[in-house]
Every structure is written in structure tokens, then in C-alpha cells.
Amino acid sequence: MIGTWWDVLLVGGASGVGKSRAAAELAVSAGAFVVEFDDVVSAVQHITTAEGHPGLHLFDGIADVDGLDVGRVLELQIATARALEPAVVGVVRNRLTVDVPAVVEGDYLTPAAVAQAMREGVEAGRSVRGVFLHEDDGARIVANYAEREPEGGVQTQRAEVGVRYSRWLAEEAARYGLPVVECRPWGTLTERIGHAVARAAVGNAGRAERLGGGVR
Fold first, then answer.
1. Tell me, what's the pLDDT at 91?
2. pLDDT at 2 exceeding the cut of 70
3. How far apart are CA 48 and CA 60, in angstroms?
């Protein structure tokens, strides 16, 4: 079980790896509120334009994403995630103004944004933690999509993008000293997330500060 020793827990990972389910279980065990960052992404894209915020509209006008090379889709995914980093920090800043703990989950949470959010938590005297879920098996992601979106058919290319994006997130998370947790076995996922976050709590702030940069 996860306690409420954190005020905000950020759960990142590629699409189709099980973040939403894990976030829901974590929130129930901690009495926390769930923020689905995908909703924020949709909102900011709706009120911005490609001219004003090109990084948020990189997929605009692409009728068939599956027709693109997997590597190109991955590039666009990462660039979009980086463009959304200030929004991640903004959500955390808002959550730190209230006393109810929150779990923020989404595909577009980057380790850089999570590290910045953690620094801001320290400055505010609050506890912000982050973890990234990792799935390296494309077939497993295909099966997850089939269960979640049966009308979408066999989404092999999308799953391949997910695997590559998951690897990129894991590599970046390691740079920032953020925990990466394998999604399987499912039955122990939330328990393993709790242990990983607790272990990583010591020393994370110092490491993130040394890497510098951050999101403003």
C-alpha cells in the first residue's frame, strides 16, 4: 500500500502500458485525486495554434500517422512531450496549492519535467515524487490496445512507437535518478511502484539539482 507521504505523485510512461489503471489503484490506496494529463494536453491544444505554439501541433495535418516511419513518429512524440513540459509543471504548481494529494499520469510526462516539479515541491516545502512505468514487449502493448480499443484492430506500429518511447523515457529517467518500474507482473505493480518511489526519495533532489536546466 502507498501512504500519503507525498503530495503529488507523477506517473509517466508510454501509451498502452497500464498507467491509468496503476494511477487509479494508487489514488485509492492513498486517498488521492487523479489528474489525467491527456485532458490537459487536449485543452492546451484546443486553445493554441500551430503558428503560436508549433511544438504542440506537430501531428496536425497528418491524416495517417501509421503511414509515417516509426522513427519519425517517435521524434514527433518526444518533441511534443518536451513542448508540454511547462504544462506539467503548471499542473503540479496548482496541485500544491491544495491539501488533497494527487496522482498525475500521462504519456507526455518527461523526466525533465518531473525533475523540475520535484525541485518546485522542495521549494514549496511539499513532497513531489515521480516514477516511470516501462514495457519493452511490443506484443504486450498490442494486446493491451486490443483489450482497451478493440475497434482499433491490431495496432502493431503504434505499439512499436510505444516500446521505443518507453525505452527513451527509461533512459532519461535514469539520468535524473528517477525510478523506472517494469509493468509486469501486473499483480504487484502498485506495490513495486511504492517501494521504488520510497527508495528513490533519498538523494533525488540533489541529483536533479546537479543536472540543472529544468522547465520554466
1. 98
2. no
3. 12
Cell 516511419 found at: 69
How many helices and strands, by DSSP H and E, does the chain display? 9, 5
Question: Does residue 123 or residue 213 have the better pLDDT?
Answer: 123
How confident is the model at residue 1, as a pLDDT? 41
Number of alpha carbons in the 13 Å side-chain half-sphere of residue 92: 34
pTM metric for this prediction: 0.91
Residue type, 80: T
Residue 99 burial class via C-beta count within 10 angstroms: exposed 0-12, middle 13-18, buried 19 and up: exposed
pLDDT reported for residue 208: 47
Question: How many C-beta atoms surround the C-beta of residue 76 within 10 A?
Answer: 17
- Residue among 136, 133, 158, 132 nearest 145 (CA): 158
Nearest CA to 167 among 111, 88, 129, 89? 111
Per-chain mean pLDDT for the chain: 92
* Nearby residues of 125 by Cβ (< 8 Å), 6 or more positions away: none
DSSP bridge pairs for 105: 11, 36
Q: Could you tell me how many residues make up the chain?
A: 216
Whether the Cβ atoms of residue 2 and residue 30 lie closer than 8 Å to each other: yes
The β-bridge partners of 180 are 132
10 Å CB burial of residue 182 (0-12, 13-18, 19+) is: middle
